[in-house]
Structure formats: C-alpha cells, structure tokens
C-alpha cells in the first residue's frame, strides 16, 4: 500500500530566508522604539532614587542635630571624577559632619589653653550615580550659591581628592542656619541633559525650609 506523506501533520515546514529576514527586521524596529524608552525610564528611576536618598539622609542629619543637641553640618562637594575622562567639576557628592572640640594648648611653651573646633564625619561620602549630578545653576540650585570652601573627599585609600564644597548646618532645634531671604533647594539632573539655568524636562528638586528644616521632594 502506498502512503501519501504530503498531507502528514508530522512533517514540519522550515522558515524561508525571506521570512527570517522579515522577522529580524520587525524585531529590529521594535528594539529601536523600546530601547530608548527603557533607557529613559531607568535614568528617571535612578534620578528619583538619588533624590529620595538625599531627602532621607537630610532628615537623618536633622534628627542627629536634635538628638545630640549640637549642630550637624551638611557639605555638598564639587570635583572632577577621575574615572570619567574629560570630566568637568560638578557637584556630585555630599557628606555630614559633627563639630568637635579638642585642646591644642602647648603646656611646655606656657601657652594658654585653647579649644579649637574641628569637624569629624558622621556619614560616608555619598556619591550620586553617574550621570546624575547637582545642577550648579544658582537659579535652580540655590543651596549651591552658598560661599564655597575647600576640602578633600575620599577617592581611594590614601588618595583623597581636592574639592570645593558648600555647607550649611542643621541646628539642635531642627531648623537651619540658612537665611530667610530666599527659598533653598538643590536640583538633581542628568549631566548630559543639563541646560544651565533652564530646568530640563526630567529633574528632581529637594527643597529645604530654613525655619523648620522640613524637606520636600519635587518631581515633574
């Protein structure tokens, strides 16, 4: 008996070259539309997470000032990242410090006892994840218009980086030592999307009330 195998369901049909090319082309078109959207969402999520962490850490510094009944200083550092070739000076990290006093009198020399203030860190240096930075325009980051000082930030063991920083204090009452003449805030942006004094499409602003020390996060 002769069996006709042309109608057998067990016989599989292979893809032709043209069909494979069409499928690959469709996948490529879909990737072209979805990858930028996914990348943008990841950057937006990184921006939100960085701003949320800053807000919670500022609340921690305020709580420490009240708990210790002593001022806690917040420093925001500006420096070049050695790991990024051609990088520019940007505000990209922050750290909290406690005022401490120590005696530098030289009794052998007959000098008068003096209590000299020093600063000791109470938190690690917290770096913003690239490409997130603090926007350094005074218009959208008024905290960065404070007077600048120089200090060091830890980069690698025994290799600190010279940096500029701005600083303000949380007082034992929970307020700040910032003036009441203007509003105080700092804005986090994608460094590649920064537009100077113009607010970019995607940003996160952390606002600080100088009287109460309350902290608010603003997102578009």
Description:
The chain is of the alpha+beta class. The protein is 24% helix and 32% strand. The protein contains one helix and ten strands. Strand 9 and strand 10 form a beta hairpin. The model is unreliable at 103-115 (pLDDT under 50).
Annotation keywords:
elongated; 220 residues; 1 helix; six-stranded antiparallel beta sheet; 32% strand
Rg, nearest Å: 28 Å
Helical residue percent band:
10-25%
Secondary-structure element series: HEEEEEEEEEE
Beta-strand percentage range: 25-35%
> CATH superfamily, please?
minor pseudopilin epsh domain
What's the CATH architecture? 3-Layer(bab) Sandwich
Number of H- or I-type helical stretches: 1
Q: Indicate the CATH topology.
A: minor pseudopilin epsh fold
CATH secondary-structure class: Alpha Beta
- What is the total domain count? 1
Q: Span from first to last CA?
A: 77 Å
Mean pLDDT: 82
**Estimated structural class:** alpha+beta
Shape: elongated
Uncertain segments of ≥5 residues (pLDDT<50)? 103-115
Could you give the count of β-strands?
10
Q: What's the main sheet like? A: 6 strands, antiparallel
